[in-house]
Amino acid sequence: MIAVKKRITGFISVLLMVSMIAACSPNQEGGTSTPNSGEKGNTAEKPADTNKPVEITWWNFPTYQALDGEVGKYEKQLIEAFNQKHPEIKVNLEMITYDGGPEKLNVAIATNSAPDVIYDAPGRIIDWAKKDLLAPLDDMVTDEIKNDIAPAFWKQSVVDETIYMYPINTAPFMMAVNKTVFEKIGALDLLPLDKPDRTWTFDEYKKALEAVKEKAPDVIPSGFYAKSQAGDQGTRGYLANLGISRFLNEEGSAVAINTKEAGAALDWLVQAEKDGLVISGSASLAAADVNDLFLQGKLAFSINYSAVLRAQNAPLKQAEFEDVLLPYPTLDGSEPKLEPYLGGMAIFNNDDEAKITASKTFIDFVANDPEWGKKSLIQTGGLSVRNSITGLYDDSEYEYSELARKFVTDPPTIADGYAEVRTFWFPELQRALLGAASGEEALNTFATKANEAITKAKAATAK
């Protein structure tokens, strides 16, 4: 790791010398650069020009809902507001997509051209932190802030008790149901909407699926998918709760989902597909395929949803219906265990203290500005990670999402080797769905491979 760091530092030094000689002029378009420009701030090489702003580059997935149909428009407004208070810092915005963004980040890291700031989730951020690619953020977090955020969120934001992600927005991952379908078939009483916590049993869920199959034959009762890693949190939460188990143990040190109950739940899923209760061909479907069917009104239940996704999906609906949030059913009706979506910001350590300091100032504005902090939270469609910030929306589903936070459990992203662990999940689901293995066999094979990856990663981290 130290050797890698030295190579990175040396390469950046070369780049700085080249840029000094080239004396390229910076972008003058008011704080944003075009997505393919590849420009980064180069203020450090001209110490004589002390009035020149420090330039930082912010790469952002479509974290915020588009304004007027324009992706990135809100981000530009946010930067303009930031510059009214901090004209000494120039923020170059580059929007990236969920499809190509992860690979683009990998390439940028490999070529020592990572952005300064990123808004992302723990799955990638903590992996970068473990590879010594990020700047610590401990000096940004006061005791007041630390005590206002639940330990479960901090656990996803630190490595060896050092903070590398500044947590901002959250929402529990759960299911959604097309409530309008159940109203039309006169079966609304089959949904647990009259219970404040909306918990329900596996048998109650199956009765709801059977009602859709019988009374709404043009609607697919429920969805599933196993083509790629995207949306894997939905499949994890669904099977773990149907089998009253956890994906990983509480320490994140080993797989826990390979139980007889979870294996039986996976076997039921395979049979349910044959019985027409679950979409056919799920082994070859991606999360986006199933989500599109739900937005078209052709699917009664979506297994991968949250308040954030509900907000993002609202303008994408191709049919008029009311989507309502539900927790995953459990075998015995016990409280579900829901993985939390968590969004936050991190800083790549590009060996420039001025840029790191400027990046911290920008993150503090995004998260804590009295006006734009709240405005930005609402624009994500998520809830605040702060216990003291509630009631952002006048909406019953957001009220339920706030309540459902009590079901949040530790996510697998905290595990060493998580990036490799998740690569074994869908192949084993596919084996079961295609009849090549029983549910229990598939989960045991997954556990063996995943536990080896966790052990290997833990050993590598300890060196």
TrEMBL record:
It comes from Paenibacillus polygoni. Keywords: Cell membrane, Lipoprotein, Membrane, Palmitate, Signal. Residues 26-40 have a biased composition (Polar residues). This is Extracellular solute-binding protein. SUPFAM superfamilies: Periplasmic binding protein-like II. Residues 1-22 form the signal peptide. InterPro entries: Bact_solute-bd_prot1, SBP. Residues 26-49 are annotated as: Disordered. Gene3D superfamilies: Periplasmic binding protein-like II (3.40.190.10). It holds the Pfam family SBP_bac_1. It comes from the Bacteria.
